[in-house]
Amino acid sequence: MNRRNLLGAALLGLATAATAQNRTASKPPLMQVWKDPQCGCCGDWVRHLQSQGFLIQVMDTGNVAARRRLGMPERLGSCHTARIGGYVIEGHVPAADILRLLREQPDALGLAVPGMPIGSPGMDGPEYKGRRDPYDVLLVLRGGATRVFQHYPRH
Predict the structure, then answer these.
(1) The CATH number of the domain where 46 resides is what?
(2) How far apart are alpha carbons 98 and 101 in whole angstroms?
(3) Would the pTM count as exceeding 0.85?
């Protein structure tokens, strides 16, 4: 193979890899969600993710068991637990933060929004009359330590 053909093959390989990466980046992997079947805010959170292109598999049982099995500390618990791309997502984490997590791929267990802060996705319905409390999305490190991944101030 001459130098010109070798260069062409290398460029074709880079273009193919970039195209595959763009396809992956534009379509997140399947997310599994464990939630209570009676919880309306969990359903609203799932719809928020679906509106952003996420494919969701919902299990209407087993939230607490999934949280324990996946290693998310109980103190960070919320009303639903999810798994995507090897990460655990706990609570009302915005789609943009999950996409950032998948893009950056930090060495971590996942993300958590402890409790149910008003104004977070799924907790932002008309019954809250536009109220938005400040909250943090936490990056949960292996071993349970956390650091702020994204801060959402009061609006």
Answers:
(1) 3.40.30.10
(2) 5
(3) no
